[in-house]
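User: Please predict the structure of the protein below. I'd like the answer in structure-token form so I can feed it into my own downstream comparison script.

Assistant: Understood. Taking the following sequence of 660 residues as input:
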Amino acid sequence: MTLTTEGTERYASDYRMQQLGVFRVEDGVRFRAWLPFAGDVKLVLYDDDRNERIYPMLNEWNDCWSVTVAGVKEGQQYVYRVDGRDKSDPRAQAMVGAADNSIVHLGEYEWKVNDFRMAPWNELVIYQMHTGTYPDKTVESSELLKGVLDDLWYLQKLGVNAIQLLPTTEFATERSWGYNPAGLYAVEADYGGPRALKQFVDAAHARGIAVLIDVVYNHLNPAGPKSLWQITPWQQPFSVGGGPLQEGGGVYFYNDPRAVTPWGSRPDYGRPQVRDYLRDNLMMWLLEYRIDGVRFDSVVNIRNAKGNNNDPANDLPDGWRMLQEMNNCVRAEHPRRNLLTIAEDLQGNEWIVKDTGSGGAGFGAQWDAAFIGVSRDQLAKTWDGDRNMHEVRRIIEGRYGTDRYQRVVAIETHDQAAHLRLTDCIDFGRVDESWLVRKRIGLGTALMMTAPGMQMFLQGQELLEWRKFGDDRAVSGVDWNRFCEIDKECRSCLNSRLKCLSATGGPCEKAISCSDCPDLPERCAPEGKFSGTFRLYQDLIRLRRNWHDNTRGLRGQHLNVFHVNDADKLVAFHRWDAGGGGDDVVVILNFANRSYDSYTLGFPRGGLWQVRFNSDSRDYDQGFGNHASFATEAHPASRDGLSFQGSIGIGPYSALILSQ
């Protein structure tokens, strides 16, 4: 069928979804499933008293079974009884639980925002979050997406323009990051189900924030007897490396050694119906839920059976073909909505982002594993002499192809933080009192925010979080006291020092009491111990996004790393778009515990250069040196391959951003 979503033309689409799952037709609600090799299939609908109502399903010519039923209600539970075994609907958008019944969800939702378009890719600053651990620990476990929605003011205040959610699909365990998908089309019940996700996207769009989600297509984790595993009687036993026979997963999975991954069973990309199942899932998120972009988990395990790069013997051509098909479908929607697909491939393979017409996979961007690994390593080294500025230069200059924004740069993601947060890597066990942590995180964040690429950081980084990232809110959720220690709900908090300001930064002139003000959280002045780090992130994000119209070069394609001093551990580079005043940006990074009152280096243009950011400022921490980092006049002189030179002051482990 042709899917045309309600609202403005921006959300209209000619993508043709397979007519499978549950959907309205003229004479009722149709239930339709692809169930090859089944001999007898019945729909079992449960009424409010849990009584079964059984409807025989028609066997169609194309291995699909269907039945149309009048009077079906939203929220009604159902299963398919396949040759006597109860099975969940593979395309159910809601489930009682990962191993339980499907729930009728017909998709009706009245959107409030109908004209949202994600920011251009060269302006994206992405906040990676886990729905299960981001909200305050007092939020009900069945309303976790609502808990995140209620805190969108915080992200808007921070300045990010995109959120990346870890997988939101139904998973098998009580708590999870979501990378063990059991019901690929269903929104996790504890997160609030499908309506809660749509409300969240709607609210984020109202604040100008795009929503990206993670999807997992390299493996599935069917849970329980009602699952996708052996959904029909057919399966093919196989052995791996001459080992004992093991049962195959049936029609949705490879039934040979290609099924094996470290996490679960790999879908059979060679079956057109399975590729349809996965591709329709992707397009459902983008079209029905109005998600703005998708990050694919472990793409290397979709394109290679062993998860290897440059290993033709184990390549999965059908997996590569599926990725191309998916990205072609997304690309067709791109002009209206600026949709984005991101690959977590981690092999540095430029074919991941090459266009499909030239044989590439067609992704918009991919995670830059080198940037993450090298930046963490250089920031965490104990001795300054061990830091390598040529390695820093290498990751600043990293790119795939000709577009510098086809990579996502980060100094920490959920994978690294699960083992040890960068804060603890720098000064283990002493984060809250450590000058080294605050200084080097400021330096590393400036490196990330000024290097070419899409920037991404993990929840809690902006508050110097040190607890390992996990799936239990009680021990690994965001510690919101680091932002503000006032023990009141944000919506009723009257800041004890009366620092609540208007949107312009001046005194508030609202003619209502603070306790009645709906905008209070957005206007609060946080009083947490690490609110200064929050402000550092806030300032860097604003410069990255050119809020003040004087750092446009941080959105440009052009880069020149013109100064690499490995002896003294300084690096400087020039970013620009078209060049000129308000465009040219110079970034200076000092990776040593040494300050300079006057350090001379090249500049790309003559005239006065203003300091727009100094990470050593006491605005970010009262323990910083507030080193005099002054505006400088660049004079004609050949230096660092440039035609002008100037002198700057810079503090230890500090970053400066200058522009004209």
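That's the full token string. The first helix runs from residue 144 to 150.
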